[in-house]
Amino acid sequence: MSTLKPETRDLQKSLEEDVEAALNPGEAQGYYRDTRECAALLLIAGAALLSPPAPRPKK
Amino acid sequence: MKNLSGAVCDLASEVVSVLRDGDHRAVISPNGQGPDAELGVAAVRVLGADVLLPSTLHRHPAAPGDLRLVREAVRTFPPGGDASASTEWSHWAMREALRRHDPTAAAPQLSGAAPDAAWLSRLSWQELTHQLAVLGALAVPPAVAGPSPVVAAAAPRTLDLARGFVRAVRRRDWLQAAGAGRWLAVLDSDTSPVPATLGLDAGLDFVLRMGGADPRVALHAHAARLLRAGAAG
């Protein structure tokens, strides 16, 4: 039994640290949808879709 | 052994279930402890006074098992000498909830003065929103939970909190948005109204839809909806 006591103490200490961390979270990293990036992607995708097909030699 | 955040989510899920049903039943299953008893008590400490929220808002007597575990969490995880303000306030809110729900069980660990709340008034609107969202369990109307220095400090800053709510939604930080929304639901009054242009009800629906898979988000959002519906008015 006596060998378990330090483990129990460690577990309790670890739980206390986890509880303290859970009660004091930092602000979560937010992420925005960047309008400029979206617009650039849209333009590139649009340009690719709207470009005329490659000319083929006439038979 | 499961990790603490998993246990907190499980417990929050139970709270949401009882909160939504409005039933008079225990949040914590009597058989739900088992070998992870310490983890369960730690989860109760993290969720704080919200474990008793269904009883508070629906005005039911709290289940004896819930009260016992909240009491155990208060005793097992007291704020240390270097504890942060949110840890101290969370502990204070649990003690107050216990005092309300179980007035006969006055114990030495339930006594103690309220921590300082003056620092809240010095925070920027972004910091205020973050701190109040962390202290979401304290967002309960004084008419139900009695006077709270945190509610008093936050009351004049509904406009700041409304800005914080919008910022949290734009950042897709659903937990902060739900916590801020719950505070706005508590603080909305004639003297410090929440701007109608915010569209708080639609905003709460959106937050619940986008972030409701996280039971902690669902807990705050459902609590806010109940408060908006006047459940605890």
Index terms:
heterodimer; A: 59 residues; mainly alpha; 2 helices; 0% strand; rod-shaped; B: 233 residues; 12 helices
Give your account of this protein's structure.
The complex is a heterodimer of chains A (59) and B (233). Helix content of chain A is 61%, strand content 0%. Chain A has 59 residues and is mostly helical. The termini of chain A are far apart. The model of chain A has no long low-confidence stretch (mean pLDDT 78). Chain B folds into two domains: 1-111, no CATH class; 116-233, no CATH class. Chain B is 59% helix and 0% strand. The mean pLDDT of chain B is 90. The chains are: A mainly alpha (59), B mainly alpha (233). The interface between A and B is medium-sized, with 16 and 25 residues.
- Provide the low-confidence segments of chain A as ranges: none
- What is the global morphology of chain A? rod-shaped
Helix content of chain B: 55-70%
Number of strands of chain B: 0
The mean pLDDT of chain A is 78
What is the largest interface, and how many residues per chain? A-B, 16 and 25 residues
Q: What's the helical proportion of residues of chain A? A: 55-70%
Summarize the structure in short.
The complex is a heterodimer of chains A (59) and B (233). Chain A is mostly helical and 59 residues long. Chain A contains two helices and no strands.
